[in-house]
Amino acid sequence: MTAALTPGVAARHLAPNAWHIGRKELIFMSGPLSGLRVFDLTRILAGPTCTQLLGDLGAEVIKIERPGEGDDTRKWGPPYIKDESGRETHESAYYLSANRNKRSVTLDIAQAEGRALAKRLLTTCDILVENFKVGSLAKHGLGYADLKVAFPDLVYCSVTGFGQTGPYAPRAGYDYLAQGMGGIMSLTGEPDGAPIKVGVGIADVMCGMYASTAILAALRHRDAMRAEGKDGGQHIDLALLDTQVAWLVNEGVNYLTSGQVPRRMGNEHPNIAPYNLLPCADGHFILAVGNDPQFRKFCDFAGAPELPDDPRFATNPQRTKNRAELYAILPSVTAKKTQSEWLDGLSARGVPCGPVNNLEQVFADPHILERGMRVRVPFPGAEGGAVDLIGNPIKFSETPVEYRRSPPQMGQHTDEVLSELLDLSASDLDGLRTRGVI
């Protein structure tokens, strides 16, 4: 049973699990968000993380890129994909990390003709996600206020560094700035060292995740309003700095509760002990004791059964208060066994522990491979005809995540999308290309 997508008909009017028939390829949309279409005006990491997640869940994502320029991260390398001859291409690993399950359309929204095409495409879309500086899209008549009357059911999500309001709103925002201004760097690093940022763009990624959650909630609201015969679109305002503050979680509330500014603690935990990287006979291992029974099991296996009976260490509050004394004792205890002895022995006793893997070890780990966290997807022109990507961690019982599309080359789907959704002819497309609109 199939259903052809008539040009100009919104994806939201198709039944769930409908076949999506393009002019060049056939893709079965079976995810929980199948039937939804996203107009993606994002680049770098926060916005693309959001739209990739929506795409992984089955939404159709149309990635709009500036002709001749494209997403900034296409040039953020090395490393770059290598072609069949071993030569570097123009597709960076950074770009690949957040752009699968999308179709790329090059469209110049700075031109009136480009803006008109954008609005025509929006008649087929449910969601718009953008991460331009505040006010930039309004200059082109594509701000939320410009569109909400013509598209009353559109879920419009803006991702910026500092939000649509407040004294910092006009500033450009980047992950590094959000980590610094939002407090996470003050908590990361050794006590006597400099503040350290997290090794990946975690403020961007978390903002993208908050954005995707907000979009799904807004869609639920829209559908409820439709059921009452009302318009249900709305504007979502997401900021890197806001979301960074939001995921300060326990340390943030520790401060709000006590009034004491937390200090950097290296690998230690502010509220439980022992929770640290400890030496062993052939390196290090992580010990993450979360309660008193686990501590006793650890001590019994470690050959130090007297420690849980010591008043300084009998309960977690006491161990946390006397952490310096505890950590002065533990290294001499843990250095007596190898890493494998600790991991095998403690795991068998239900005591949380683990190694510190480098990325080669991560992506060779049998459990990680079994869980599908390393995936290989076709990529025409790449060495071996495919590229490796990081898998989606969501495991559905009925609607599994599908890797339908590899990250697109810039403008790869321009003709396909415009002919399919707007019924433009080959001569129409040639004219647009000649005028630099696409």
Characterize the structure shown.
The chain has 438 residues and is of the alpha/beta class. It folds into two domains: 11-246 and 371-434, Rossmann fold; 275-359, formyl-coa transferase, domain 3. The chain has 16 helices and 15 strands. The strands form five sheets. The chain has a six-stranded parallel sheet, sandwiched between helices. Strands 11-12-13 form a three-stranded antiparallel sheet, covered by helices on one side. The protein is elongated and about 85 Å long.
Please state the average pLDDT score.
93
* Fraction of residues in H or I helices: 25-40%
Give the CA-CA distance, first to last residue.
35 Å
Question: What class would the helix/strand composition place it in?
Answer: alpha/beta
CATH superfamily of the largest domain: Crotonobetainyl-coa:carnitine coa-transferase, domain 1
How many runs of DSSP E, i.e. beta strands?
Answer: 15
CATH architecture of the largest domain: 3-Layer(aba) Sandwich
In short:
With 438 residues, this protein is an alpha/beta fold. Helices cover 33% and strands 16% of the residues. The chain has 2 domains: 11-246 and 371-434, 3-Layer(aba) Sandwich (Rossmann fold), CATH 3.40.50.10540; 275-359, 2-Layer Sandwich (formyl-coa transferase, domain 3).
